[in-house]
Amino acid sequence: LTAVDWASIRLPTALVCTMARLSSLNELRLSLTDDVRQHLVSQYDDGKTTDHFQRILDAMKIAPRVTTCRVNRILATTDEVVSQLREILLERGKQREDVKICNFSIRKHEAFDDVVVISPEDARNRLSGLRTPPIGLQNDNSGSKQMFGKGKSQSERGPWPMNNCVIICDRRCGEAVLRGSDIFVRGVICADQGVKEGDEVAVYADLQESATTRGLMLEKYTGHCVFLGLGTAKCSRAEMFGRSKGVGVEMYKRAGPDHPPLNSVLTGKMMLQNIPSILVGHALEPQIGDTILDMCSAPGGKASHVASLVKNNALIIACDKSRRKMVTAKKFFNEMGASCIVPLALDATNCVVQD
Predict the structure, then answer these.
(1) Tell me: the pLDDT tens digits for 117-144?
(2) Is the CB of residue 308 less than 8 Å from the CB of residue 332?
(3) pLDDT recorded at residue 50
(4) Is 76 helix (H, G, I), strand (E, B) or coil?
(5) Which residues fall within 8 angstroms of residue 84, CB to CB, at 6 or more apart?
(6) What processes does the entry annotate via GO biological process terms (predicted)?
(7) What would the pLDDT profile of 1-50 be if each residue is shown by its tens digit?
């Protein structure tokens, strides 16, 4: 027999098994380019508190503790929206048998009378309150195949949860989930083969923008994803990738503060919008009869807010260089009843007519 130098042997690239990387929100570290990081560190670190900037990055992983809705005064009043939201969330809480949804506090904002604030009964940070499901053990040699369907042992399951099927959604869908949304079928990019309606699923968000093919089998996924929470599948795997619309997963536990499920709630009468964006319209103080130019309008939230503040008694020119985005924005403006807005697919940096 000849001695073999195993260290010198290199397997072909195609045979090297790359395993998916799973993180919790606690473990996730936000990365910035060196120049951006250096600039922000110079602004936020004074040399005394060197971890201040890192605390800011850590806070960016957590959804705000409250949900803010901006009322469209063209079609509704704030009092109407508050009353209707209470009825809707009470009904949804009963349907889902989720007392947390029934107990959300709904009130007017103290400073902005066209803003509704929704907060959970317990608004404390729950980032670490939901643990990731138990994963398969890579060094398990017991051969046990009882914990997961399709006859897979723990070692065959790899890094994925043993007691739950897995759904992976895209990054934008994942951000919406942390703000209270359920998962629509168009947001699902990867799923366990055995997923069927009614299954409890562990939900992850893919962090590699446009790097994962939609419909990929879970065992072939080799990217980096972050755990978002647990939900109930509302259809089978085949239907998730075969349908063009509808809810694929109904969430009931999230890795973060609780937020109400507001999918398609009071469409036209209100929209979800963060306070910094709402502040822009109030700072502008639009007056009846004004002509207002929005030079980077898509998706249209701020332009529609201005229309709401003047109740369509102004002329608003909404521009964006993306025709696709402005087609979508036009539909949104119509939905909000904002008839004073003229949407244009136009690059605002090159829109001056030369004599």
Answers:
(1) 998 875 454 444 566 665 544 434 333 3
(2) no
(3) 59
(4) coil
(5) 266, 269
(6) RNA methylation
(7) 334 343 443 434 343 346 788 888 888 888 888 898 888 888 776 665 55
Phi-psi region of 132 (alpha: psi -120 to 50; beta: other; left: phi over 0): beta
Give the fold, CATH level 3, of 275-350: Rossmann fold (3.40.50)
List strand residue ranges (DSSP E) for the chain, in order.
21-23, 67-71, 105-108, 115-119, 165-169, 183-184, 188-191, 200-206, 216-217, 224-233, 247-254, 270-272, 291-294, 315-320, 341-345
Contact 157, 202 (CB under 8 A): no
233 neighbors 196 (Cβ within 8 angstroms): yes
CB 133 within 8 A of CB 162: yes
- Give the C-alpha distances (Å, rounded to integers) separating 289 from 126, 137, 310, 316, 336: 47, 67, 9, 10, 20
Residue 332 in contact with residue 305, Cβ under 8 Å? no
Please state the residue numbers annotated as binding site for S-adenosyl-L-methionine. 296-302, 320, 347
- AA identity, residue 109: H
CB 68 within 8 A of CB 109: yes
Residue from 29, 71, 98, 108 nearest 259 by CA: 98
Examine residue 299 and say whether the peptide bond preceding it is cis (omega within 30 degrees of 0): yes
The fold of the 154-254 domain, in CATH, is 2.30.130
Confidence of residue 288 (pLDDT cuts 50, 70, 90): very high
For the annotated binding site, the residues are 296-302, 320, 347
Domain with CATH 2.30.130.10 in the chain: 154-254
Structure tokens at 59: 């806070």
| CA distance linking residue 347 with residue 234, whole number of Å | 42
pLDDT of residue 210: 64
Q: What is the per-residue pLDDT across 316-340, written as a single tens digit (0 to 9) for each?
A: 999 999 999 999 999 999 999 999 9
- Domain boundaries for CATH 3.40.50.150 within the chain: 275-350
Which three-class secondary structure state does DSSP give residue 67?
Answer: strand
CA–CA dist 306, 81 (Å, integer)? 19
